[in-house]
Amino acid sequence: MKQKCKIIFTCLLMFLFCPFVFAQDNQMSGSGPIQSEGVSPGSPVDLSVPLVSSSTQFNSQPSEKSKTTDVRINFGGQVNYNDITGPGKASSSLSEGVRHFENIGINIRGDKNDFKYQMNVSGRVTNDERVDPIFVALTSLQAKLEYKNNFLNMGDIYEAFSQYSLNTALKGVSYKYKNSSTRTPEISAVFGSAYPRWESWFKDAKAKSINRTAYGANIKQELTDTLKLGFTALKSDDSQRVADTDPLYNNTLYSFDGEYRPIAGLSISAEAAMSQTELEANSTASKTSYNGNAFKLEIVGDEDPSRVVLGYERVNPEFESLLGSAIKDRERASARWRYKYTPNTTFDSKFAWYRNSLNDTSKSTNNYKPEAGINIKRIFDRKYSNLNFNVKLDLKNSSANNSSDYFADLGYRDRFIGLDVDAGAGFTSYNVDKNTRETLDYSGRLSVSTRKSFEKIILKPSLNASSNYIDDNINNTTDKIFEYSVSLGIDLPDSKLTSNFKFGQNILKAGAGDNADSLFVNAGIYYRPDAFFGIEDCTLFARAMMNDFAFETDTRNFNEKSFSIGISFPLDFKI
Amino acid sequence: MRKISILILFMMLAVFASVQQVQAKWWIFGKSSDEVTLNYMHINKASYEDMNGKAVFFKDSLAQSNEMTINGKASVKKAKIGAVMVSLDNKETWEKAKLNDNGTFEYKFYADTSKTYDFYLKAIDTTGKTNDIEKTYVKITFSSQDVSALVKETMDKLFRAYQTENLTAFMSLVSDNFIPGADILDSAVRRDFILFDYIKIDYFINNIVQAGDGKVFVSFQYNRSVISTKTGQTFTDKGMTELVLKNENGQFKLFSMKHPLMFGLSDASEIATGSVNQNSNEDTLVVGYDGTIKVVPFNESFNQDGDSAEIKTITLNFQHLNPLNSTYDFENEEYDSAGYMVLNIGSGLHLNPGTAPVQQLPAGTSLSSTPIPSSGYAVDPGGMIVVTLGEVWAIDFGARGKVLLLFKSFTGTAVIIDYKYQK
Question: Which of A314, A308, A357, A319 is closest to A333 using CA atoms?
Fold first, then answer.
């Protein structure tokens, strides 16, 4: 704990100190044009030549290199008053009473010659436990250093090595060497903990989590103009079990990935990974070890008028990707073909198959998802028209049961006498054999909106309505849902005011359950003055909303009202 | 079934190939014998083929002094590439790029980020032929929005589309490369919309971290309520979760999500790629494999739709075999003298699993939320194990399946056990 605090404190000190060091030299220097003809791989571009004007418009206009440090402070805060009444008030998602919520973020950035630095710190204060159970939270802490081809990140870091190996943010440090102008390998190394928030690091009782320490490295190399390869080695080690039932993993993962573009328009990418895992399933279980592997291949052919994507993936049940992204125990193949028949007509067809339980196919569920669709723009020679039709099947077969779901959607968008209209209809059929489920869902939606500008006022009215009929043929019930809302936006540009008002109702007629009728009203007004007590880009707002939930069972009724006022503004200055 | 799917794949490929009459040469990908072709091109490391004529770069993520680098390779079969020219002003003026013998080229310029550049590239071979210049068009713009603002805007759109149950709008914000498949999320979200009514989600971003490859990791708190269309019941939950967005042509799209899920709860085990590393008892909304909506503590929210083993209760009477021992066949749900598990009540309650490996789970383990362990069993514990009420044990019978047991009560002549069995 002490060591972690020291590390953070040192980092903070270092990066707060940086701006003042470099701010000592306030001379401006220019940079020269990049001589495209003269750039030779391996030699960094010379940016130290004084600024000169050039006959060419583009490759001769280096921006001024400021040696100042830019500081931006963003603040946003609001106070809410929430009032909840009714016997079912426990179902409300609001916290009662006066609640406040403040965010503050500080961004410091600057550069000197080839050295660039940036630091972000942000925090949040709230007494609303539904927003955050922690009263004062450090939401972000990040420092970035860049010197020529060297990049050092500290604090919140995110290095996406590859899909299977590392695709999550860590709290720690990462280093990268990357030289864009040569074919030297790009090398990255990372060390950190996969804590979800800083309070977990500080062992706050409300944010306890297992300590998953990770370290590893990745190397990427462009072997030829058409072939790129990458290799990752990553180790993660869990410790500090919070509950006896927590599983602890010790995982080592190796991954190869690559991309090959043999001809223009065709790319083949693949990743293969293997993991070695030691698992202690809970505090009393003995440790077990197992190895797993995963492989994926994607081929993309893209050349007008077609785009074809073929994919295959197999992740075996013993593969553990604790910091990457993978669904264990799955084999999947997919194909997609998008064909632009004319500039305004596009066909899209997809097919996907996947299954689980790879080690015991008798328990596998096979999924088949064929899909086809067409999109036509400017139909009937109408400028704003857009017609979309899509059908999809979703079939599942397993030894336990089979299901077949059908989806069909039709959508149409257009503009009539100045009104933007968006309408859609859908049909869905869910069928699970052995009389488990037989449901038909019919849906429709309509949205009409417009924007009218007058001399000093802009009006933006809109109407939305939708309905669903869900027939359950097994239980002989029908659920009916009706939803509508009416809204009006009023902008007064000269007064720097924008506002909106919305009213709506959701009605559920449940075939077997409790009927529900929800009414909602919300309104908001936003004022963005040129300057507010000298602060530019400031926004002041006031909002009010009311939700009224009425159920067939009266004891579940509740009503929630919320009133909010708030302010947000940035403060920019240089040091 | 696997053969059928492979067959369907090949059939689809055959259908693709058969449409050549409609538009020839789509499969050639521009590789004709005497055409000047562009093998690949990157603008600031982003592939031009993914841009669809439009590229948006964030000002705050540009290299030093707004330096932009365009590199790539042009080729022609029967000649050699003689020059590569770049236009940034809609073909009004052309600048020469650095060209190597093998057709690779590089061009750098300092961008004025207040401008929009209409980019074209012309590769000329030694006989004077050029590539299809029109196809190289890219409108290059620069966004002054910082990444956080754009992430917030995308998140707002995602949540708005989901809350208004607008599937088309929602899926337009999902990457085609969504892990583990946009089609799976599409089906799951459709099912969500059937199950949920009046979805309300407030989210509060904790932090946003950018990776070098256009991905952004977002961690946030959420506060959610839905009404079940089946029962009319209101469900609320709150907590913290994480997702990844990917920048595709200046627009962030949903790339992956962790558990607890915000979208696609109806097929959570097929969608969540990992779980937020937290130990929390926050209420978490889950949808069971049969479509039932539940709110359970986060620590018990995993595998709600993955472990379909039913919890059953048995009362084992020790008189059926002999006064001291009882056996049970979990597969056929009957007493069986040649059975799986032997319980002994010599001097208290004993579990005798024979040679089957066992493991004890911590007291308080919930059968409803704990899957039957697939590993962690100790091989051949040997002899009888003393068990006390409230203890949870798992036995691995190999090919005959696994069972998870909770010892609930013991009267001296009978024992009541909750169990889950899966072969």
Answer: A314
